[in-house]
Automatic annotation (TrEMBL):
Parts of the chain that traverse the membrane: 131-152
Cross-referenced SUPFAM superfamilies: Immunoglobulin
Pfam families hit by this protein: V-set (PF07686)
The keyword Electron transport is annotated on this UniProt entry: no
Gene from which the chain derives: LOC108933115
UniProt GO BP: immune system process; response to bacterium
UniProt xrefs under PANTHER family: T CELL RECEPTOR ALPHA VARIABLE 4, T-CELL RECEPTOR ALPHA CHAIN V REGION-RELATED
Organism: Scleropages formosus (Asian bonytongue)
Signal peptide bounds: 1-22
Domain Ig-like: 2-112
Upper lineage: Eukaryota, Metazoa, Chordata, Craniata, Vertebrata
Protein name (Swiss-Prot/TrEMBL): Ig-like domain-containing protein
Subcellular location: Cell membrane
GO cellular component, one term: plasma membrane
Keywords from the named record: Cell membrane, Disulfide bond, Glycoprotein, Immunity, Membrane, Signal, Transmembrane, Transmembrane helix
SMART domains: IG
Length: 203
């Protein structure tokens, strides 16, 4: 049961992202706004460049008086708008990236499908999402680690209590000779009757 619980916990924390992408057409030098399909508040935005790990862009809050927090020097390039929408300014070829929004659920992040900018067909054709591969790799590693731990416990040598050595049984026989006078003859001949006794000792 602990093994199953650990596996579910690992897979639950490492939320999987589907591979489907939404294409957002845009022309170079223009601005584009993308929406989050999960929520309009308390949102995280992530961006993933081809062949790179995903990077956090910003985090928004339900309280409108609380300004969004930007990460990785993305402030200025990306701007949070109302209802959790993300504004991408002055689009260039370098913006051929996939964007994800995420929300917290039970202390875990749940990610949306990716939104890929299609800048006048200058971006490379869609490939398998690196973000999906990244998350799948994390889950696979978790499963592998749990499997190794379980196998290591199963293959560990069992400890047995030492068996007490039994002392060999020693059979000792005691012998005695009893002399009984004979009867029936007037002669004083004495008949010797020899009896043998054996005493067994239990261990």
């Amino acid at each position: 049961m602990p093994r199953i619980s650990s596996l579910y916990l690992c897979m639950y924390v490492c939320s999987l992202v589907t591979e489907s992408l939404t294409m957002a057409p845009v022309r170079p030098g223009h601005n584009v706004t993308i929406n989050c399909s999960l929520s309009t508040e308390n949102i995280y935005w992530y961006v993933q460049q081809p062949g790179m790990a995903p990077l956090a862009v910003l985090r928004s809050f339900a309280d409108v008086s609380h300004e969004a927090i930007y990460f990785n020097d993305f402030k200025g390039k990306f701007v949070l708008q109302t209802h959790g929408r993300l504004l991408i300014q002055n689009v260039t070829r370098q913006d051929c990236m996939v964007f994800y929004c995420a929300v917290t659920s039970n202390e875990s992040l749940v990610f949306s499908n990716g939104i890929k900018l299609n800048i006048d067909d200058m971006c490379p054709e869609r490939q398998l999402s690196t973000f999906s591969l990244f998350i799948a790799s994390v889950v696979s590693n978790c499963i592998l680690i749990i499997t190794v731990i379980v196998l290591a416990k199963k293959l560990s040598p069992h400890r047995y209590k030492p068996v007490r050595k039994l002392e060999p049984v020693r059979d000792e026989a005691l012998y005695s000779v009893v002399q009984i006078p004979g009867q029936g003859n007037e002669t004083n001949t004495t008949k010797l009757i020899t009896s043998t006794y054996a005493v067994l000792q239990h261990p």
